[in-house]
Amino acid sequence: MNSPQFTAEPSPSDADPYPHPVPYDVIIAGCGPTGAMLAAELRLHDVRVLVLEKETEPAPFVRIVGLHIRSLELMAMRGLLDRVLEHGRRRPAAGFFAGISKPAPEGLDSAHAYLLGIPHPVIVRLLEEHAVQLGAQVRRGCAVAGFEQDDERVTVDLADGERLRARYLVGCDGGRSAVRKLLGVGFPGEPSRTETLMGEMEVGVPQEEVAAKVAEIGETNKRFWLRPFGGGAYSVVVPAAGVGDRAEPPTLQDFKQQLRAIAGTDFGVHSPRWLSRFGDATRLAERYRVGRVLLAGDAAHIHPPTGGQGLNLGVQDAFNLGWKLAAQIRGWAPETLLDTYQAERRPVAENVLDNTRAQMELHSTEPGPQALRRLLTELMDIDEVNRRLIEKIAAIDIRYDFGDGPDLLGRRLRDIEVKQGHLYGLLHRGRGLLLDRTARLTVGGWSDRVDHLADPTAVLDVPCVLLRPDGHIAWIGDDQQDLDDHLSRWFGEPAN
To answer: Any residues with CB less than 8 A from the CB of 276 and at least 6 apart, and which?
Structure first.
């Protein structure tokens, strides 16, 4: 195994304050978007973080992924959006659900109502750089081979024999998660029934000929396309002949065979840059936490890529978990706060799995699903139907169950204008925020965890809101005692 590569050293201020010293507060397995985002969120609260990545180098292929509205909002909350926008390409927030082409609904409730296409290696690099700049440590070429936990710590065994200790371990190591398997958490669901080939290669026929054939076949087959990628290359997606071994990459001959079977021509494809395959397996972890070990991202859920929700779902897991795990480590978390991670995020994943199942059915070329697709296409001409499906895919319809209250309770708050600029600009530090239109309230003994903005001009339909660090509304009202009760619920006991 290659020797570990350190991209950052622990912060010198991170002296161990605990009676049973461990070198790290959290070890994260996997430095994809979920792991990198989680590391950054933890570092906002001075949590000592080590990220282990089994690969020594980034993936050799460039796959374009899409950041949906909610993920763009999260980037804005942490001051990352401008950096991300430099490397991406905006497109309308439309046509996500089963590839049904409809215009974006007007007036989506977000200041970032678009999709951002960005190369997967780029978003991984940007999030990793963000985590490292905040003081996270990343070690490559390090695979988790085993671990054991007790009431105080987790001891992690690496494949090269090294042993590491931390207070918590989080598996962000993908759909084949070693952490999940070692933890013994069930991963029920459905295996792949279909498989799709994906790659990047050059073609040997004119672009006009490619475009005409793709348009013809695309009327009924939504798992088929050839799109110019730049530099003379095309992104090629075509259904596979069957379900094969995911560990074995497809060959150029596999692509030629399937292109001829579906399009009647292989378009003279040649000079592949990379070749891959993906299936439509759908699985959800039975638990997101066992003691001091947690799961996030694809380690907790996998589903077909239709709708482009996977990366977004994982990043949003990290945003939900980061401040809660940090609160547990810093010692101010209410007793059940860490349990709300699974309670809130697992139902979200269940909904994503269901909508991807539905979309895959609509991709079928069989007469029944095609009839259903035509019916849904007609129904999506109704604005509210189109809007509902886009909000679902873009994750701006999520409402966590915080108990009885106005419909806004438990939802995320859009990036409204406030007297200091924009709301999300006040959330860069990952703290809670009281947005107080009465200018009469206070956060008192919680000021080390919660900021207070008295702004009578804020555009809100309610007097005051308490925002969690992930931007979801934890309380609505104007009564100080009621506010104090909710501050205790989410942010623990006040400091003396």
So the answer is: 61, 63, 197, 198, 199, 249, 250
For the chain, the straight-line distance linking the first and the last C-alpha, in angstroms and rounded, comes to: 50
Q: Is the dihedral of CA 216, 218, 224, 228 positive or negative?
A: positive
What's the token pair of residue 6? 């350190």
d(CA 63, CA 197) in angstroms, rounded, equals 13
Of residues 487, 405, 387, the one with CA closest to residue 446 = 487
Please name the residue that has the structure tokens 């009469």.
440
pLDDT of residue 174: 96
- Check: CB of residue 217 under 8 Å from CB of residue 259: no
User: Which pLDDT score, from 0 to 100, does residue 248 have?
Assistant: 82
d(CA 272, CA 268): 12
CA-based nearest residue to 136, from 15, 6, 284, 242? 6
By C-alpha distance, which of 276, 318, 3, 303 is closest to 139? 3
pLDDT tens, 374-409? Answer: 999 999 999 999 999 999 999 999 999 999 999 999
What CA–CA distance (Å, rounded) separates 327 from 168?
Answer: 13
Task: Assess contact for 215 and 224: CB atoms under 8 A.
Answer: no
For the chain, give the number of residues: 496
What would the two tokens of residue 452 be? 């207070």
Which residues are CB-neighbours of 374 under 8 A, at least 6 positions away? none
- Dist CA 42 CA 290 (whole Å): 19
Alpha-carbon distances, residue 50 vs 43, 170, 276, 450 (angstroms) = 10, 10, 30, 26
| Token pair for 209 | 């000929």
Pairing assessment for the beta strands 163-171 and 189-190 based on DSSP bridges: unpaired
- For 490, the token pair is 């989410």
Which residue type sits at 38? Answer: L
Q: What is the pTM of this model?
A: 0.92
Residue 289 confidence (pLDDT): 98
**Rounded distance, CA 273 to CA 255, Å?**
13
What are residue 332's phi and psi, to 5 degrees? -110, 5
Residue type present at position 164: L
